[in-house]
Fold this protein.
Amino acid sequence: MNYKARKRAASQWMKRSGLDALLITHLPDVRYLCGFTGSNAALVLTGGKSVLFTDGRYIQQAKEEAGGTKVVIEKKSAVTAACEWVADSGVASCGFDASITTVAALEGMRKAIPAKVRRRLFVASDAPVATLRQVKDEDEIQKLRQAAKLGCSLFDGMLEYLRPGLTEIDVAATLEYRARQAGAEAMSFETIVASGPRSAMPHGRASTAKLPRRGFVTLDFGVVLDGYMSDMTRTVHLGKAQPEERDVYDAVLEAQEAAVAAVAPGVSAGEIDEAARSVLRRAGLDRWFTHSTGHGVGLEIHELPRLAAKQTQKLEPGMVITIEPGVYMPGKFGLRIEDMVLVTSEGHEILTPSVKAWIEL
């Protein structure tokens, strides 16, 4: 990972924003800029320098992971120590990420510095590092490819396992166990298994409900490899489907493929959303599509950009996004199909090429 280049990009952003320093407290942002993966950290960038604050649990880990960054070990809160250091350094302005900093956290930051500089020192900034993280470098893309590939292999293996009578928890536990056996360090999020009428719940947590003899089963899951996350959804049908179920599936698949086909540099996030939504609108199903079409993914499962109606942000090469339209009819059934897609200089690359065609088990 080229942390030097990332810190240089952050410093250039600071310069354009008229800031003397930047305080980073969001752990994925800290990891992105210096490689440190501990649970207590704050990073300060100023004057071409980077200083990482953490505690005594991470003396060796910080030394190994945060090369090129000065490490300060403190007994107090890492954020408090960083704020004190910034105040003592004499900088006139220090940006912080207002999109993730709570009111309580900001109050704590201000209390850590002398009263005479509290009003002027900290400057609210809108997701400075998260904005940089949108466009992945080659190292990140390769890690995301590997995570997505593992996710696909897990889904392919689950097709032989799924059968009526298993509980949703059985399915989730088996998938997660196989993921860890295959080398995943964690799951990207709590695995979603929603079957039968519960498939109408977009984020239905795996429950004790048994897979039906006839009905949809939606699997939404991801794995973490070296900090980078995958995210995919596939929906299969157990038993003989009703015509309406097949028709809705075909419409969702058409919507998903239309949105994927629209992915290219310069296309707005809102246009991608509309590409999917318009297909479902023509099929009379758009009112059952109740969430946005996708999001960025990387060190976190939900990153910028957001692919939703009226979003004007343009896609750029190196962005990795999800495309995941769905239809959810309460009391009946629901389904979703999701891929991870890399924006390339000429268009796009699907990172999760597992079969999306109708599967009836």
Summary: DSSP finds eleven helices and 19 strands in the chain.
